[in-house]
Each structure stands twice: as C-alpha cells, then as structure tokens.
Amino acid sequence: MEALGGTIHRRQRIEVIDAHMERDAAALQAELDQLQAEYDQATGEAKVKLLTKIEAAKSRLDAVRSRAKARVEELNRETEARIQAMRDQAAKAVGDAKQRVNQRIEEIKADHGARSEKLQQAWRLTKEAFSGSTTHHG
Question: How many structural domains compose the chain?
C-alpha cells in the first residue's frame, strides 16, 4: 500500500468496532427520522407500509443499542480487571518501575474514557431515536 503512495492507518480492532457501532446508530437514527417524516406526510396504505419500515428500523436500532450497552459493560469489566492487575504490579514494584506502572494505569483510564464515550454516544443516539419517535398507530 505504501509503495503505491497510500497511507496506512493502524487502529486496534476494538476501536474500529466501537466506531462502527457509533456510525450504525447514527445511520439508523437518520433512517428513522426520514421514515418518520415520510410517515407524517403519508396517507392510507402508504402510511401502513411506512409503519412496518419504521418498526423494522426500530428493531435494528434496538439491536445496536443492546450491543452498545453490552459493550460498555464488557469494557468496564475488562478495564477494571486490567487496572487491578496493574495495581498489583505497582504494589510489588519499586522506583521507576512503579512510576511506569502507575503511568500505564493512567493511560488505561484515559483510553477507557475515550472508548466508553464513543459507546455511550451510540447508546444515547439509539435512546434518543426511541424517545423521539412519535409514530402513532392509526
């Protein structure tokens, strides 16, 4: 790739997954907003067909929401376990080694905050989509 003049961007697999969930939530929110606008203008059978599409979009959005929530919980468990292991190392370390371990703990916390925020954003988008939908049957 580099030989062809391209640029390679390396990211951890989990960062890609987190960003993908956030994009999915935003895209589904936009789709739901569009369907809602069409529903509000539709009449008769078109309204019934749009309602089916809205329910399907809500179902997909709910799946993204569930995945985001589960991922946040998993991330919290993993991070807490890593931090505890690092604290155990720091308790046994001395001098510069102890300082490096404590610095790594702070880096892990910062990384966790950034990743958690992305997932929280995806979860908020899905929550807003459900609370913002005003479709009424009938």
Answer: 1
What is the rounded end-to-end Cα distance, in angstroms, of the chain? 56
DSSP 8-state secondary structure symbol assigned to residue 1: -
Contacts of 8 (CB under 8 A, 6+ apart): 1, 2
Query: How many CB atoms neighbour CB 10 within 10 A?
Result: 5
**CB of 21 within 8 A of CB of 64?**
yes
Residue 2, domain member (yes or no):
no
pTM of the model: 0.62
Record the tokens describing residue 26, joined without a space: 């935003």
Per-residue pLDDT of 23-73, as tens digits, reads 888 888 899 999 999 999 999 999 999 999 999 998 988 888 888 888 888
